[in-house]
């Protein structure tokens, strides 16, 4: 599973990382649960968040392992016990109906979660480039961080400039603030000018 589109609907999905001890502990129970998937008429998946950072961003995976139940396009975070029999009971007894679905603003295919997924992918790209510069090229870590800081500042300034230009174009300043103020002359001012001449 490399990406999530609205057309891909899993019944149960488990996010893990190979270095995570809790994930390693759960793998045996999860695989035993997956063996029951045909009997339960469900699909069971597991996702390595180190390989699929975009997917972990879409689901806002902040703790590992994370388990989601998906039915009819409705996503629910699993919060029960992490045992094969508990997983099976969760499905057979429809315990998922007792849990609230994730809010619509956190729905994995929503535009904002797509943006979050892009940021997760970007962070992994930056990490990979940093590792390349340090490990392969031999640049010290501080120099690599300096390069990324400089690039971030430069891109931020350029992006800020374009955003200001777009805002000025879309919402131009009012003309009355740009024109010089014209004073209306009063009768006293006209008499004073006439006396000077």
From TrEMBL:
It is a single-pass membrane protein. The chain crosses the membrane at residues 142-167. Pfam families: Thioredoxin (PF00085). It is found in: Endoplasmic reticulum membrane. GO terms for cellular component: endoplasmic reticulum membrane. InterPro entries: Thioredoxin-like_sf, Thioredoxin_domain, TMX_domain-containing. Signal peptide: none annotated. Its main location: endoplasmic reticulum. Keywords: Disulfide bond, Electron transport, Endoplasmic reticulum, Membrane, Redox-active center, Signal, Transmembrane, Transmembrane helix, Transport. The keyword Disulfide bond applies. GO terms for molecular function: disulfide oxidoreductase activity. Residues 16-92 form the Thioredoxin domain. The keyword Acetylation does not apply. PANTHER family: DUMPY: SHORTER THAN WILD-TYPE, THIOREDOXIN DOMAIN-CONTAINING PROTEIN. This is Thioredoxin domain-containing protein.
